[in-house]
Amino acid sequence: MAGTAGKKGKVMIGANSVTALNSWSLELGIDTLDTTAFGDDWKNFISGLKEWSASAEGAYNVHTDANGQAALQNAFLNGTDVDLKLYVNNTNYYSGQALISGLSIEDPVDDIVTISIEFQGNGALAYT
Fold first, then answer.
1. Tally of structural domains, the chain
2. What is the sign of the dihedral through the CA atoms of 72, 74, 77 and 83?
3. Less Cβ crowding at N or C end of the chain, within 10 Å?
4. Does the pTM exceed 0.85?
5. Quick check: 45 pLDDT over 80?
């Protein structure tokens, strides 16, 4: 079975790549609404509202990546949406508007400084 190597992935904000990141993840969810009625032997459900969230992490580079990591930090501080694109390879990606719901920086004495960013989807997610 053929797979896709993650080395072609990337995170973009608008037209700008976010540098120094080395992983991202995407979570999709949907509410399931119970429509079970009296006399049913099995539960019945219909789909409700959809949601998505994502996260990304890598080496801290806020001080030199003005249009990437710094832009994400500013969007978090200002509470503004970003135009997020999560590339699986050179041509295929997920995209949507997102709020930065969390931003963590870790500075260990024995390793590199890292950054983790949490995104909360704000509206529809598309796949190209």
1. 1
2. negative
3. N
4. yes
5. yes
